[in-house]
Specification:
14 helices, about 0% strand
């Protein structure tokens, strides 16, 4: 077990930085295209992590099977899990996106149930409570002005992250977690760039219209949200009890809600507030 102070620093990095990424995404997509901004963010973070590993004498070479496994996990967690959240935030508030993302543990439990794994009755009940919270957020008038399409995209993002979390341990991955994270970021980055070009973002993009605010938010997401926080998360998975690691699912939505209300003037309706409480309380 690592020193307590290292665990605390890593945990609070994931708590605060990942909680703030929903705000960062909202600011980014005000003037930057969703898929291209997310893809370039992961390419930059993955390239920086690869450079750090090489400079510290660690090899980033992997087998073809490990590269395939890393690519599949990276596309599931980051390419679709984060890429679709980025797209969703062009239509919904950052706080709503965070609350839907907070349902990931519930979806993983549901997947375990469908796979006929043994799940305690109390745990199954928590899934029902969390799903009720999601329903409150999604009802007409309860979502703070979000569109049905935006909600569906955000839900798709959370499902992709859940699938990656559930099946990820079955994939052939590099033994070094940081090397795995490098290839996951790079794979997700290339995937999102292709998606951005295919969806026409490159044609409609107007670099002259990029605001300084959006560019600064994009840099924050690349360096802090991806390189630092994702690396901290990878380290925690190998050095902390999983019961501690998953606590970020409680905290991230609360940080996102607070920042959205304070800095973006996002309104928290009664239905959204109750829905958030049900989701966080059931995790």
């Amino acid at each position: 077990m690592a020193a307590r102070w290292k665990l605390l620093i890593a945990l609070w990095t994931v708590y605060l930085v990942w909680g703030s990424t929903y705000l960062g995404i909202k600011l980014t997509v005000r003037t930057l295209p969703a898929f291209l901004s997310a893809g370039s963010r992961f390419l930059l973070a993955g390239s920086l992590l690869a450079l750090i590993l090489v400079l510290t004498g660690r090899s980033i070479r992997v087998t073809r099977r490990e590269l395939t496994g890393s690519a599949l996990l990276g596309i599931s967690l980051l390419g679709l899990g984060v890429g679709l959240v980025t797209l969703a935030e062009t239509r919904i508030d950052s706080s709503v996106a965070a609350m839907i993302a907070g349902s990931v543990p519930l979806q993983v439990i549901l997947l375990r149930t469908l796979a006929r794994e043994r799940v305690a009755r109390a745990t199954r009940l928590s899934v029902l409570v969390g799903l009720a919270g999601l329903a409150l957020i999604a009802i007409p008038g309860g979502e703070g002005g979000a569109s049905a399409v935006g909600l569906a995209i955000a839900l798709g993002a959370s499902i992709s992250w859940s699938l990656g979390s559930f099946f990820g341990h079955k994939l052939p991955l590099p033994r070094d977690g940081f090397v795995a994270a490098t290839w996951e970021m790079l794979s997700a980055g290339f995937f999102l760039l292709v998606l951005g070009v295919a969806s026409g973002e490159l044609v409609t993009m107007e670099p002259g219209g990029f605001s300084l605010e959006s560019i600064a938010a994009w840099l924050y997401l690349a360096v802090f949200g991806t390189l630092i926080a994702f690396t901290a998360y990878t380290w925690l998975l190998r050095n902390a009890p999983i019961s501690k690691v998953v606590t970020h699912q409680y905290v991230n939505p609360l940080v996102a809600i607070a920042l959205g209300a304070l800095l973006l003037d996002e309104k928290i309706t009664l239905a959204v507030g109750v829905g958030a409480a049900l989701i966080v309380g059931s995790v």
